[in-house]
Each structure stands twice: as structure tokens, then as C-alpha cells.
Amino acid sequence: MYDLIVIGAGPGGYVCAIRAAQLGLKVGVVEGRETLGGTCLNVGCIPSKALLHASHMLHEAHENFEKMGLMNAHVDVDWDKMQAYKADTVAGNTKGIEFLFKKNKIDWIKGWASIPGAGKVQVGDTVHETKTIVIATGSSPAALKGVTVDNDAGVIVDSTGGLALPKIPKSMVVIGAGVIGLELGSVYARLGAEVTVVEYLDVITPGMDGEVQKQFQKVLVKQGLKFVMGAAVKSAEAQDGQATVTYALKKDDSEHQITADVVLVATGRRPHLDGLGLDALGVAMTDRGFVKVDDHWATSVKGVYAIGDAVPGPMLAHKAEDEGMAVAEVIAGKHGHVNYGVIPGVIYTTPEVANVGLTEEQAKEGGRKVKIGKFPFMGNARAKAQFQGDGFVKLIADAETDRILGCHIIGPSAGDLIHEVCVAMEFGASAEDLALTCHAHPTVSEAVREAALACGGGAIHA
Ligand code: FAD
């Protein structure tokens, strides 16, 4: 008899299992994939960051080496080797989770699970008894009407196929200007593909701060990406190794076509709950097909919990991890907590884009009086030395209390810089607290301090 069986070994599930084992519980994890780590390690965060890193290096060699006196760098791309580097990066990480499972005496139950009843998890013909169950089965790419994905053929692909194309395409259409589409689109643009992004809305990366959206799109256009905005995709048809996308512009309903070597469908993800038997078990679901949970990640069935992409909230690895740790604490009879107001989001393009907390628009819609401190990376010595002066830090603080409400960064290392603001927000800090904190010179982090200064007396270098 297990204390806990976790279904799914993604960042939610494996972190939950490790914390539960550290708290003294007997834990098993069911994973149907050949390797641990879920979407994130196998076909998500990690392989995409490997390709972003490699293609960024290429971009640096082509665009910036000569400016620094590094002459005659001639860099050819060996796509098979780049794929091998990506695979090694993934394998190193997934094996690392296997090691951690062994270290923490967690059983990896291999296969696909269903839940025939509370306290029971079935894998193949074996039914495992357990006191509690955590559903951490993650998500899979959402289907788009009129478009059939075939990752093996490599012409109309989703993010999984997009990470493992047989060759670098000369042209690519990305359907959807969200995080995944823009990250992969910029990888292939840097590798030489002509990339066109077709987006239904009039803005990219919906939900992000408006000023950042505009600046981000400008930068991507400068990098060669093309955008067709306000366009509803009707269909995509593959023929003779290419695909034609048909879309209608919302403004006048006119129909257009665009043909490319590869079409990447990146229109979002949906919770992956197939085959678990949740209907028969009587687990309540949300209108949008997520597992409904309370403040302690408990489902409507006693002893069954759910976390990560399977439940509502941002579909992010670190959100899943935090819920994994917290639900393990709850199951072990302790207190588990996730502060949903301080979950950063990062886009790992160059420049990086990062955000936490309220956008200016959200703060205003909520009727809050805010003050904005903005600082451009052009005023930051380190960023300029690295040819990364595009972008800015925008800090949002309450107009009366000076408490930090949010931060939006587009610029070098934005994905790392955002965390000093996260810590400040966790401690309920004011913009002045950040402004009075000494930041080492020359670092790009000085731009965050300058934005905090701009919330008060004024930035020094602007
Ligand atoms: P998952 O990671 O999806 O893991 C669920 C696991 O459960 C899977 O391994 C699956 O095989 C298994 N499973 C499902 N059903 C069963 C069953 N019945 N029995 C047994 N096993 C089962 N997020 C970030 O925070 N940062 C990023 O940079 C980032 N980049 C991404 C890039 C791409 C291309 C993609 C697709 C996603 C990216 N994400 C990123 C999102 C991130 O991958 C997910 O938010 C995260 O993996 C969710 O974790 P999870 O544990 O909920 O589920």
C-alpha cells in the first residue's frame, strides 16, 4: 500500500513525489512515457531552450562578432548535430530525475494509469492500492479546426514536431503568436527560415503588458519575422512537401493563402486527461475541461488531488512545481501554499521577455491608482556593451502605498532579472525598497533599480 501515487512525472508530478518522499511518505509515480520529466523536459522547456541557445550563438556569430573584432567567423549549421546536442541536454535532465527517484526511494511504475476507484490506480493488469492520488498528467497541444497535424511527415506540425524537424525549412508559417510559437519561430528565423506568424488577435502574446507587446513585436520584425494579425486560420493542407494555410482577415473577411515548407500549429494546449476514467470516478471538471480543485488541490473525490497543467492557471512548469511541493505538504498533514499573484512568466527569445504581477492595463481596470517607473536598457552600460540596448524595465507600484504590484521586462536576462522583483513582491516591498538596494555595477540588474528609482525621485541614467 502506497501513501501516495502520483500519475505523471512532469515538473508537477516528479517534484510532488520527491517532496512527499522527503516528508516520509511511501511514494509511487506512474509515467507512460519512456523517460521521466514530462512535457517540460522531453518536448517542452528544455529542448526548446537548447535550440534557442544554439540559434542565439549563431546569431551572435553572424551579427555581433565582427563588431567586437572577432573576425572571419564562418559558422555552418549541422542540423543533425544541433539535434544531437538537444537530445543530450534532454537525456541529461531526464536521467537526473531517475537518479533523484532512486535517491528518494520513489517507485517508477511504468505504463499508463487509470483510476478505477478512490484509493486505486490501475496500470496494465495491476491495481495498486494507495491512500492518496495526485493527478499530474499535464497537457497536450490543442487541435485547430481545419488543420491536421502529422509530426512524422514534418510538414504540418505541433510544438513536438517543431522541435524535431527533419531539416531546417526555408519557410515556415507559425499559427499563433503565443510564447511557444514565437520561441520556435525565432529559432527557425535565426537558422535562416522565412517565418510568418499568423495570429487571430490584433496583439501578440495576449495578456502581456501592452507596451511590452508592441516593443516585442517591433524587435521580432527587426529580426526578420513577418506578422499577419487579426487573421482567422480556416485550413492548412499539405501537398508535395509543403503546406498551404488559408486564413480570413477579420477586418474585411477577405480570404488569403500562404504556402510554406512547414506549418507550426501553436494555438495553445489542453489538459491531458484521456484514459484516466475521471467521468466514471465522478471527478468534477471546469467548463474548459480542467480538473476542478479547491485551495488545497483536492478534487471533488476524497483522496484524489490534481496539479499542474491539468488544473486551471498558467500552464508553466514552475507553477506545476510549486503546486507539486504544496500538495505534497498538504497530503503529509502540513501546510502547503502557492502565491498565484507572484508567478513569473518568461519568453526565452532574444531579447528575453519577463513579467510578474499586474500589467498596467489590469491595474487600471481594477481601479487602482498606480505609478510607473520605466528605464530603457539603452541607459545601461552593460546591456549596451552586449548590443542589447533594445527594451526596458517597467515597474508598477501602488500610487499611495508604493507597494510593488508588477514588473514587465524586455531585454537582456529578463528571465533572471524578474526574480528580484518576485522576491521583493513576496516580502511586500515598496518600489523605494528596491531603489535603496545597492546593485552591483556594471550589471543589467541596475536597470531594475533604475526603474524603481523612476517610481520615486527619478532614474539617474535616463
Ligand atoms: P507535463 O509536463 O505535461 O507531464 C505530464 C506527464 O504525465 C507526461 O509525461 C505524460 O506522459 C504523463 N501522463 C499523462 N497521462 C498519464 C497516464 N494516464 N498515465 C501515466 N502517465 C501519464 N513552461 C515553462 O515554465 N517554461 C518554459 O520555458 C516552457 N517551455 C515550453 C515549451 C514548449 C515547446 C512546450 C510544449 C511547453 C513549454 N512549457 C514551458 C510548459 C511546460 O512544459 C508545462 O507547463 C509543464 O510541463 C506542465 O507540467 P505538468 O507536470 O503539469 O505536466
UniProtKB/TrEMBL annotation:
The gene it comes from is lpdA
Chain sites annotated for binding NAD(+): G176, A177, G178, V179, I180, G181, L182, E183, E199, G268
UniProt keyword terms in alphabetical order: Disulfide bond, FAD, Flavoprotein, NAD, Nucleotide-binding, Oxidoreductase, Redox-active center
Family indicated by similarity: Belongs to the class-I pyridine nucleotide-disulfide oxidoreductase family.
**Binding-site residues, FAD:** K49, T137, G138, S139, D309, M315, L316, A317, H318
| Annotated active site | H441
Q: What does the record give as the reaction this protein catalyses?
A: N(6)-[(R)-dihydrolipoyl]-L-lysyl-[protein] + NAD(+) = N(6)-[(R)-lipoyl]-L-lysyl-[protein] + NADH + H(+)
Q: What species is given as this protein's source? A: Paracoccus hibiscisoli
- Could you tell me which residue ranges the Pyridine nucleotide-disulphide oxidoreductase dimerisation domain spans? 343-452
Species lineage, top-down?
Bacteria, Pseudomonadati, Pseudomonadota, Alphaproteobacteria, Rhodobacterales
Report what the protein is called: Dihydrolipoyl dehydrogenase
